[in-house]
Amino acid sequence: MSWKDHAPAIQIVLLFLAAILSFSIIAATLPETKFVQESLNSVEESSSTVTKFSAATLSTSLAISALPDDFATPLAESLADMNLYFMVILVALFLEKILIQYGISIAFRILIPLACCAGLLSIATKKNFLKGNPDWCPWPGGGVCCTVQHTHYRHRRLRPYGICQ
Hints:
single chain; mainly alpha
């Protein structure tokens, strides 16, 4: 007997172990890691900065609109419109925070074990119904990591210029 005869059994055991490891150990320890906590702190710091910018924009718009003769009203209106963009950025930051907090748990407690079970089912039934599907599996998790790190990188790069204090 060669190792090729035992390959399906080895694959089944490895997929089962990956599902158990993902559900029990990784999902429990990953949210408390330094990387995730730094990402959450960075998002919180960015959202507080955007909130300050939004408040400054609104207060400046209010002060300008209080001037007599309405000569600066277009400027006040454009500043008030600019606040809309700050709110969009703030919503995106809150979505990013939710994605970090709950996306990690969903990925490691539900998605990865389900993918392992689908692989087990594919091996057990000897049907290749998963052909092409595993190619997109790493993208959501990688997207979260890259997005958070890009935001953190931009924040560090803009801080010396006084933009993100």
